Structures are given as structure tokens and as C-alpha cells.
Design the sequence.
């Protein structure tokens, strides 16, 4: 089942204060994104590694390029073989990175709040080797589309560089987690280190 998106574009959020929220992002069906969600997303971004070297105004600028999405358990964000057209930041919930073998989905790793997803295929433009699938109901994401990233890169290169640095850290964490899991499995399978 492919994900059904609730998109908000752009998010016009200001960090640090509920009182200074002056405009609301509008959902496609004319519903307002409630102020509590705006504040929560703003606070979420304020505490992320990605935003550690950004000013308040730069965080606000970044949020203007992102869309808010909510997916349900089992929804597929991207399929094996597709080329990544977006980066995802998990706000709430868990996303599994899985491969399918003989109609059986096998989880390789998962990403939770504060983690970035989709960076490999997004930057190398090669087909995905894993499926991204929501593991929990009401999983919340912030999405940066390729189009918006290109615009951000042109209009705000410092912020785009921060995203690339965050992608490097994210890939390093994933590589270390998979390497550790493989090492433990190899030790168990071959009984090395006796």
C-alpha cells in the first residue's frame, strides 16, 4: 500500500515562541495545520543536529522548503528500484529500511525521530536497494523534495551544505549499525573468537 500524504507546503514556522505564529500553512483540503503541530515541528527542528549550526532565521528558512507528511503503519514511502526524489526527516514514529526476498519483507535497519532517510538514492540518483516503510501508525515526517533542495542550494547554499553534512553523518550511523549487526551475526554463525 503506497502512502497517502497530508502535505503542507511551505511550512511557515518560527522557532522558540507560540506567540509569534502569525500565518498558518494550509492543507490541500483547506484545513489549517493546527498551531500545536506548528510549534512541535518548530521545536523538533530546533533540537536537531542538522540545525545546530543554523541561526533562528536559517531554521525558519529551511522549514519553508519542507513539507509535513503523516503516514500510517505499513505505508510505503519509496519502493526498491525507485530513484530517490526526496529526503525525509522522521519527526515521530519509526521507518523501516527493508528488502524483499521471496515475498518476505526483511528489516535491515530502522530510523526514528531526528533521523534522516533517503539520502543515498537522493544524492547518487541510483535505484534504491531497500524499501522505506512506516512501522508505526501516525508516523510524521518532514520531506525535502529534489526540486526544493535544488532551489535551497541555489538560494541558501549554507543551509544546503548543512543538509549534506547531516546526510554524511546519517550514512555513517547506518553503516556502523549494519556493520555491527553483521559482525554479531558473523560471530554467531561462524563462532569466531572462541
Sequence:
Amino acid at each position: 500500500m503506497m502512502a497517502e500524504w497530508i502535505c503542507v507546503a511551505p511550512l511557515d514556522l518560527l522557532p522558540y515562541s507560540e506567540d509569534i505564529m502569525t500565518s498558518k500553512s494550509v492543507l490541500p483540503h483547506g484545513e489549517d495545520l493546527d498551531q500545536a503541530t506548528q510549534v512541535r515541528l518548530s521545536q523538533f527542528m530546533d533540537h536537531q543536529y542538522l540545525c545546530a549550526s543554523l541561526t533562528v532565521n536559517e531554521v525558519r528558512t529551511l522549514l519553508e522548503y519542507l513539507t509535513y507528511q503523516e503516514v500510517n503503519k505499513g505505508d510505503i514511502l519509496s519502493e526498491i528500484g525507485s530513484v530517490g526524489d526526496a529526503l525525509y526527516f522522521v519527526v515521530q514514529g519509526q521507518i523501516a529500511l527493508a528488502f524483499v526476498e521471496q515475498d518476505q519483507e526483511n528489516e535491515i535497519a530502522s530510523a526514528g525521530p531526528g533521523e534522516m532517510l533517503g539520502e543515498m538514492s537522493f544524492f547518487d540518483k541510483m535505484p534504491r536497494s531497500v524499501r522505506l516503510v512506516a512501522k508505526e501508525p501516525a508516523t510524521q515526517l518532514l520531506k525535502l523534495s529534489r526540486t526544493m533542495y535544488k532551489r535551497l542550494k541555489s538560494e541558501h547554499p549554507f543551509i544546503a551544505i548543512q543538509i549534506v553534512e547531516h546526510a554524511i553523518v546519517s550514512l555513517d550511523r547506518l553503516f556502523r549499525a549494519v556493520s555491527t549487526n553483521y559482525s554479531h551475526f558473523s560471530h554467531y554463525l561462524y563462532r569466531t573468537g572462541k
User: Anything to note?
Assistant: Confidence is low (pLDDT under 50) at residues 1-31.
